Structure to design on (131 residues):
């Protein structure tokens, strides 16, 4: 396993890009709208991982609610797993509280699933399986 990306909630992608791309010089791999999750994202490369900027498409989306409650900042840490269904089954077997019992399609066509922060010391964990 490895860290796939760190998700950072921002009110507007351009605000985050001004720092991560323009000031720090990180390469923008691309932007994408993930309607199912109610976000527009920008992926920036940092070595062999990424910073994922998250802009809510509406205030009622999960990221919109996060911003209203906590403001901009780290939203989640994503870990790449070789078999997301096996990882979810193992976590569930060990008593983890899952937000997603089954994987769904995320940014870039990857399979993703979220683990509740109450299980992971207050950190929202995203499991990612690249196809």
């Amino acid at each position: 396993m490895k860290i796939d990306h760190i998700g950072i909630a921002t009110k507007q992608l351009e605000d985050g890009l001004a720092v991560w791309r323009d000031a720090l010089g990180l390469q923008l791999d691309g932007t994408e709208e993930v309607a199912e999750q109610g976000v527009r994202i920008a992926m920036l490369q940092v070595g062999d991982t990424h910073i994922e900027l998250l802009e809510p498409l509406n205030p009622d989306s999960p990221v919109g609610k996060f911003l209203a409650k906590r403001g901009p900042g780290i939203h989640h840490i994503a870990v790449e797993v070789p078999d997301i269904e096996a990882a979810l089954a193992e976590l569930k077997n060990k008593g983890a509280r899952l937000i997603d019992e089954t994987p769904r399609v995320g940014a870039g066509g990857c399979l993703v699933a979220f683990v509740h922060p109450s299980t992971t010391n207050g950190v929202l964990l995203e499991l990612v399986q690249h196809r």
The chain has a mean pLDDT of 96. Strands lie at 2-9, 27-34, 39-46, 49-56, 73-80, 104-105, 111-115, 125-129.
